[in-house]
Amino acid sequence: MFTLVRKVDLNYTTNRIILMFSIIVGIIGYFMTGSLSSGISLAGSIFLTWALTREVDPKHEYSAFLSAALSLVNLFYFESLNLLALFWIILLLRMISGVCGKSLTLVDFIVVFGFSVYLSVRSENSIYLIPFLIASVSLLFYKEKPRTSLVFSLLAAAVFLMESFYFNFLSISEPFVSPRIELLLMSVLILFPAFTPSSRIAGVLDDRGTPVHVKRMNFTQRIFPFIVLLLYLFPGISLNNLIIYYSVLAAVAVYPLIGRKTVQNQ
User: Fold this and answer.
1) Is 224:89 a contact under the CB 8 Å cutoff?
2) Residues forming a β-bridge with 211
3) Would you write out the chain's pLDDT as a tens digit for each of its 266 residues?
């Protein structure tokens, strides 16, 4: 049984809003790019950006809408989107945080590991195995399915070594921008964990209505920018995906400040 997929309940207003927003962006994207597939990709990216932010910042529901709005930059600089990579990160974060409220199954490990291997082979970039390895080791540390976590940790490490040294699937990426801007972008990823205090976990419930595991959720928030940093340093990221990741980080950092000022002004 696969436990990492969360249902989109259309009885919730926010879920209906993001679906409508995604469809509208997809239509606009189609007319701007002249490509139906591009329009569908842009629509999917809006929804996945929203979903990814909900995993990184579960306490602030509307920060996900802010990130989706920021990611609209992709309408003007559209090249390509790797939606599978977005979905893969979401599954990884859910796997670590336990926010779905269910004990992980063997199917969960197999599916996420399968995605990791597929992405690494398709992009000829073994770096995709590292986040999965970190996730598996963290679950071993938190005593979540320890035997299964150990087996998949060893398996991920073996596949990573084989792809990196036998198939030569590991290389440094070419810079997107100037060295100064690149340094700034990497600094944001390195320093971001310092701006995610533990207080953002207080009161957060999992899908079954029980308090989330604080340490696992904290680690989830801190591992996300590290995953982005890995994909940035090695050739595993597109410009449009990078825009989405930074939109998520910006929304997670800024929205709590906006929300706090709104409460103070009321």
Assistant:
1) yes
2) 205
3) 889 988 777 888 899 999 999 999 999 999 999 999 999 999 999 999 999 999 999 888 899 999 999 999 999 989 999 999 999 999 999 999 999 988 999 999 999 999 999 999 998 999 999 999 999 999 999 999 999 999 999 999 999 999 999 999 888 777 666 778 888 888 888 888 876 665 567 778 888 888 888 889 999 999 999 999 999 888 768 889 999 999 999 999 888 777 554 434 43
pTM score over 0.70: yes
Contacts of 175 (CB under 8 A, 6+ apart): 182
Place of tokens 């390895």: 133
Report phi then psi at 73, rounded to 5.
Answer: -55, -30
Phi, psi of 164 (to 5 degrees): -70, -45
For residue 10, how many C-alpha atoms fall within 13 Å in the half-sphere facing its CB? Answer: 2
* Amino acid in position 172: I
Distances (CA, A) of 223 to 9, 254, 263: 28, 19, 30
Which residues touch 15 (CB under 8 Å, ≥6 apart)? 8, 9
Structure tokens at 199: 């207080």
What whole-number distance in Å separates Cα of residue 38 and Cα of residue 56?
A: 26
Residue 78: partners with Cβ closer than 8 Å, 6 or more residues away: 29, 32, 33, 38, 42, 240
